UniProtKB/TrEMBL annotation:
Region (Disordered) residue spans: 168-192
Name of the protein: DUF2892 domain-containing protein
Matching Gene3D superfamilies: Tetratricopeptide repeat domain
Length: 192
């Protein structure tokens, strides 16, 4: 994996070769080198390992996605801020299967760093709401669900938000003890 600065240096170098090819009269080669330099500029903003991890995650291959993310040795120097957000978001999704506390830490970091798209940030808020609900912090979960609903402008997470609200209602419902109800007189009669 190339560091983010090295990607820009390579792109500038290839662009310089493209200009040299234009000066020499090789227009086709110059265009090809410009397109090649644009690939490195694209990879500056979209990390190749994060893209491959997303592809693995779409196929529900969590170990494969983890393998690609583990190839990023030092995310603070290798990734720009939004990529660090996605790195933490993906790690949070994978860790949430086993360890909710560690997943919350990853999701909080992704929320702090920010993500490019609103529906991705809505997904982070939804996952944080799920973690808060599992830790019995209902007020925080309600606030996070409201934020997720505001961020989900295209309605991609409507079903998940609705299901989370139903789970919250179920968790707030009083517990019923079957067979123990009735009036005090009825309970005394049963005990005789």
């Amino acid at each position: 994996m190339y560091n983010k600065v090295i990607k820009l240096i390579i792109a500038i170098g290839i662009f310089g070769v493209a200009i040299w090819q234009f000066v020499e009269g090789n227009i086709g080669n110059g265009i090809m080198y410009i397109l090649l330099s644009l690939i490195f500029v694209f990879l500056y903003f979209k990390n190749e390992f994060i893209l491959l991890a997303f592809l693995r995650l779409r196929k529900q291959d969590y170990p494969g996605a983890k393998k690609w993310l583990d190839k990023i040795k030092n995310p603070e120097t290798a990734l720009v801020q939004k990529q660090q957000g996605y790195y933490n978001f993906l790690n949070g999704i994978m860790v949430s299967q086993d360890n909710m506390s560690e997943a919350e830490r990853y999701f909080r970091k992704a929320e702090k760093l920010g993500l490019s798209m609103d529906h991705d940030m809505a997904m982070v808020k939804l996952n944080l709401a799920g973690v808060a609900l599992s830790k019995r912090r209902k007020q925080e979960a309600t606030n996070l669900l409201a934020e997720a609903q505001k961020l989900d402008k295209q309605g991609m997470l409507t079903d998940q938000i609705k299901m989370m609200k139903e789970n919250m209602k179920r968790a707030q419902a009083p517990k019923q003890h079957y067979g123990q109800g009735g009036s005090i007189r009825a309970q005394k009669r049963r005990s005789r």
